[in-house]
Amino acid sequence: MKTFKYLVLLISIIIISEKSFACSIIYYIDSKTGKIYFINNEDYWYDVKPYIQINPSSKDELGRIWYGWKNFGQGGINEKGLVIDGAVTPEQKIPSGYSSPKGNFTDKILAKCSTVDEVIQYLEQEKIALNNAHILLGDKNGKAVIVEWINGVKNIVEIKNNRLVSTNFNLSDTIQTEMTCWRYPIIQKGLDELDARNPKDTIDLKAVGNVIGKAVQLPQKDSTGKIGGTLYTTFIDLTEMKLVLVYKLDNSKIQKLDILSELKLGKKRKIKLE
């Protein structure tokens, strides 16, 4: 297996549970330049058929690019620089009168909303809540939040200083924060090291990508022989509106997109990851 240059892989063995999948998400602002980066490890079974979906703007919808499988947008970005991604968390009770989203929730959000505040308003308007996941939202204005639902109450975790990190526990749940998640402190430490760099050193997409590279899940078989691990990693430069996707940690399976240029083509298309 070839190692992708954006990732620094750890030699570690991760046990993959059939009932839970580990994902890691970073929203990071370079305090020196103000540039914003949004990076995600999507950890899942290797037998799905993921793809990148490009939907240009129309009269009532914003142009957007999302990635996932089976018409499920796991994460993505739109022409306004709004980004969204989610991670599985321990199951929780949702507020009374609310329900799980129907259809392709990610696509709907990216088509209708331009900022984090608009998404929060949309969630309330549609009475949407998730009982087994939280959502990390960010925009080009430097605002980022994690929305999660704990014991029937919606909680919003806001960005602190220059970063917001999500793994697979609810940050606003005081019990869950005591749970061990090896990826969360490793990512935070890596971002601390970026912040402590010599001012002359440049922080770019590759540098931030190397931080999340320490949290990848190497492919491994479960008890039935099914293989899972980091299915793909997405690297988004929100300032330059560039997207890089690496499939199965393989240097030969890379997709690079200039987001605005791609959307301006006005062509709806699907890029299969293989």
Write a brief structural summary:
The protein is an alpha+beta fold and 274 residues long.
Question: How would you describe this structure to a colleague?
Answer:
With 274 residues, the chain is α+β, with helices and mostly antiparallel strands. It has one domain: Penicillin V Acylase, Chain A (4-Layer Sandwich). Helices cover 17% and strands 33% of the residues. The chain is built from 5 helices and 15 strands. It has helices at 105-112, 116-125, 183-195, 205-213, 259-264; strands at 24-29, 36-45, 51-55, 64-69, 72-78, 83-88, 133-138, 144-150, 153-158, 163-166, 220-221, 227-237, 242-247, 254-258, 269-272. The protein has an 8-stranded antiparallel sheet. Strands 1, 2, 10, 11, 12, 13 and 14 form a 7-stranded antiparallel sheet that branches. Helix 3 packs antiparallel against helix 4 (205-213). The longest helix has 13 residues, at 183-195. The radius of gyration is 18 Å and the shape is globular. The two termini are 14 Å apart. Mean pLDDT is 90; it is low at 1-20.
Helix/strand-derived category reads alpha+beta
CATH class: Alpha Beta
Largest sheet: 8 strands, antiparallel
According to CATH, the homologous superfamily is: Penicillin V Acylase, Chain A
Q: How far from one another are the termini?
A: 14 Å
| Number of domains as seen in the coordinates | 1
Q: Radius of gyration over alpha carbons? A: 18 Å
CATH topology: Penicillin V Acylase, Chain A
CATH architecture: 4-Layer Sandwich
What is the mean predicted local confidence, pLDDT?
A: 90
Q: Low-confidence segments, ≥5 residues, pLDDT <50?
A: 1-20
Sequence of strands across the biggest β-sheet? 9-8-7-6-5-4-3-15
Total count of strands: 15
